[in-house]
């Protein structure tokens, strides 16, 4: 991962790259056909997941966990092939995807994986065009999306992809306005939203986009308050949640575009590098430098008190990046 000074040039998942003292998902809301809506129903969610960049692990906690609690599962060790995992995502079956910034691969683990276990699949190699990745997303069709912050690109892989496979689509080129892309999310229309760390913006691409295409949505400007966006999510009302490393969580109304003013800005977070909403629109935030996961009310604004916090030596949290519920 980049050092803090270099990470300052990177916005989205870059927040997840650095030492634990430096900055480093994204789950859309439960509105079909949002990409990961299947993970966000608080009534059925059992676990909350995060990738720990500085300990090379993925941890899962009971969805209602609070305080200094041990995780339900920890994927870590030489057999896992995890190397600086800067982002993670889940599919509808609960399979766990972790992006290795230190190895330019994506490792896929079974839903019940725990301990020093081998991945069930690995995606990577020259044909894959996977670069340094700080953003992953699995859509409703099971296709995997990965951001490449070094080459300003987003690649899509067919469901079940394994080995040195070519992407089925690549969004890249000057027309895309991609600039150090990291986290992604999909809205109810199928538009793919991407956080641009390098240009303090969020851009959206129409469903089926491929090649050097212009975005159909661009959120940028002084009114937005966006500084270093890292991870994205949608809640069930279609509001866009932006985890911004320098700010906290910025909440935009459904359909926001241009130099839009946010509905709310949740502050008091050291380094926001992951965000997700549940079916009640409670907002969960990963704090990279605070080594914590915090839950906020749906109407939280300003320096709001979290409803609960997972933090402490027993948690194993170490530079957490991205969040997912299942």
Can you tag this structure with a few keywords?
about 325 residues, Neuraminidase, 1 helix, globular, disordered N terminus
Shape by Cα distribution: globular
Briefly note the structural class of the backbone.
mainly beta
Given the structure, what is the number of helices?
1
Nearest-angstrom radius of gyration?
Answer: 17 Å
Strand residue content: 35-45%
Overall mean confidence score, pLDDT? 88
Helical fraction? under 10%
Low-confidence stretches: 1-15, 17-43
Question: How would you portray this structure in words?
Answer:
The protein is mainly β. It has a single domain, classed as Neuraminidase. It has one helix and 24 strands. The strands form six sheets. The protein has a four-stranded antiparallel beta sheet with strand order 3-2-1-24, with no helix packed on it. It has a four-stranded antiparallel beta sheet with strand order 4-5-6-7, with no helix packed on it. The chain is globular. The two termini are 27 Å apart. The N terminus is likely disordered.
């Amino acid at each position: 991962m980049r050092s803090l000074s270099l990470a300052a040039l990177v916005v989205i998942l870059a927040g997840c790259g650095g030492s634990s003292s430096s900055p480093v998902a994204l789950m859309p809301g439960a509105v079909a056909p949002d990409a990961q809506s299947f993970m966000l129903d608080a009534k059925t969610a059992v676990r909350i997941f995060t990738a720990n960049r500085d300990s090379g692990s993925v941890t899962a906690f009971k969805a209602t966990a609070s305080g200094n609690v041990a995780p339900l599962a920890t994927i870590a060790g030489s057999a896992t092939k995890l190397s600086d995992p800067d982002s993670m995502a889940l599919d509808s079956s609960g399979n766990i995807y972790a992006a290795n910034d230190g190895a330019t691969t994506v490792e896929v683990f079974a839903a019940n994986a725990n301990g020093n276990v081998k991945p069930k699949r690995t995606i990577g190699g020259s044909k894959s065009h996977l670069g340094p990745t700080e953003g992953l997303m699995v859509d409703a069709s099971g296709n995997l999306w990965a951001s490449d912050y070094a080459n300003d690109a987003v690649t899509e892989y067919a469901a079940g992809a394994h080995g040195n496979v070519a992407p089925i689509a690549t969004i890249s080129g000057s027309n895309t306005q991609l600039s150090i892309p990291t986290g992604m999310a999909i809205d109810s229309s199928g538009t793919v939203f991407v956080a641009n760390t390098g240009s303090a913006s969020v851009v959206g691409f129409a469903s089926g986009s491929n090649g050097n295409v212009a975005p159909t949505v661009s959120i940028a400007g002084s009114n937005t308050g966006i500084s270093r966006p890292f991870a994205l999510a949608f809640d069930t009302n279609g509001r866009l949640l932006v985890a911004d490393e320098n700010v906290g969580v910025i909440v935009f109304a459904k359909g926001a575009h241009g130099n839009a003013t946010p509905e709310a800005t949740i502050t008091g977070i050291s380094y926001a590098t992951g965000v997700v909403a549940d079916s009640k629109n409670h907002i969960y935030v990963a704090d990279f430098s605070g080594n914590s996961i915090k839950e906020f009310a749906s109407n939280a604004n300003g320096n709001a008190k979290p409803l609960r916090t997972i933090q402490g030596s027993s948690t194993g949290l170490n530079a957490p990046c991205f969040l997912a519920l299942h």
